Amino acid sequence: MATKVSQLFSSIFLLFLVLPVLSQPGSSASPKVGKPSPFEFLEHLQGCHKGEKVEGLQELKKYLENFGYLNYDHFENHTHANDDDFDDLLESAIKTYQFNYHLKTTGALDAQTVSKMMEPRCGVADIINGTSSMRAGKKRPHHGHSTIHIVSHYSFFPGNPKWPASKTHLTYGFPSGTQSNIMSTIARAFNKWASATHFTFSQTRDFTNADLKISFHRRNHGDGNPFDGPGGVLAHAYAPTNGRFHYDADERWSIGPVPGAFDIETVALHEIGHLLGLGHSSVQNAIMFSNINPGVTKGVGWFCGLFGCKASANCRYLALVVSIWQFFGWWDYEKVF
């Protein structure tokens, strides 16, 4: 028994030694002419608060609905989903957003909140079916009447969708015509996830039957989640076992850190996390944080990449490792002890 426990904790310790991913300078993969961000409408809403009627608040409501913060359909007596009224539900949704992103929970559109909302981001919602996992061990009122349940530092999609325990090898593919340097860059991201999990990955030419399908699209591309052009939603991916991962082809993509462009590998690392069942993190340095700015690169680095933690805090996060291992079926108390 002692030997098994020793081996287990030795393996956990090795995970802490995984080095951060080194950024590799590269050239732009698909440069785009600068255009206004789809989120620029937020700028003129700065300073708005409950009780006001301001043109553009309807777009803000759609923004918050897209990312899971607002759903007027749940409330029969509220008819403000398609108007510019700053009502109580909008204020509550903004407070929840501010809470998730470590902002002062004023419920008003202050400068810090507007700035954060305008950042390019992943298209996967922060809150799904009323559940947010972005703030650990906390609860806060949501939409005036209901409560969003906040789970741990790491997060999984609601219902914990995951790949079958017997399926630890996943194939991934690209449609014909995908540039080879893009495929090799994304392959590096898969290799980094393989080094941090029990999953293994291999590329297949059979795009149709691949477990994971990676492709570039513009605007409405048939999955019900249209892209919005440069500078807004960068990419999105689906929970297990859907397997789809889409980049917005209208973005300026790069291989490595390039000013004004988004690093293909960094975004791949984030979206692969979704493919494996992970949700968003509230830790800005974590790879699963929803927002990413141009010219920025991140790595998995396992703990430091996933949770944004420091090596000196390893013991603090040991319980998180065990919990994640339990989720994926890697930890069995009966076998270990």
Description of the molecule:
- This protein has nine helices and twelve strands.
- It is an alpha/beta fold.
- The chain folds into two domains: 16-35 and 159-311, Collagenase (Catalytic Domain), CATH 3.40.390.10; 40-118, Muramoyl-pentapeptide Carboxypeptidase, domain 1 (Orthogonal Bundle), CATH 1.10.101.10.
- The strands form three sheets. It has a five-stranded mixed beta sheet, covered by helices on one side.
- The radius of gyration is 21 Å and the shape is globular.
- Residues 1-33, 143-153, 302-307, 309-319 and 331-337 have low confidence and may be disordered.
- Belongs to the peptidase M10A family. Matrix metalloproteinases (MMPs) subfamily.
CATH first level of the largest domain: Alpha Beta
Poorly predicted regions: 1-33, 143-153, 302-307, 309-319, 331-337
Q: Which architecture of the largest domain per CATH?
A: 3-Layer(aba) Sandwich
Strands of the biggest beta sheet: in what spatial order?
A: 7-6-8-10-9
Main sheet attributes: strand count, strand direction, barrel closure: 5 strands, mixed
What is the averaged pLDDT score? 80
Q: Structural class of the secondary elements?
A: alpha/beta
Radius of gyration: 21 Å
Number of strands: 12
Instruction: Provide the helix percentage.
Output: 25-40%
Task: State the fourth-level CATH superfamily of the largest domain.
Answer: Collagenase (Catalytic Domain)
Ordered list of secondary-structure elements with their pairings:
Blueprint: H1 2-16, E1 28-30, H2 57-66, H3 88-100, H4 111-117, E2 127-128, E3 131-132, E4 139-142, E5 146-150, E6 169-173, H5 180-196, E7 200-203, E8 212-217, E9 235-237, E10 244-248, E11 253-254, E12 262-263, H6 264-275, H7 303-307, H8 318-328, H9 333-336
Parallel strand pairs: 3-5, 6-7, 6-8, 8-10, 11-12
Antiparallel strand pairs: 1-11, 2-3, 4-5, 9-10
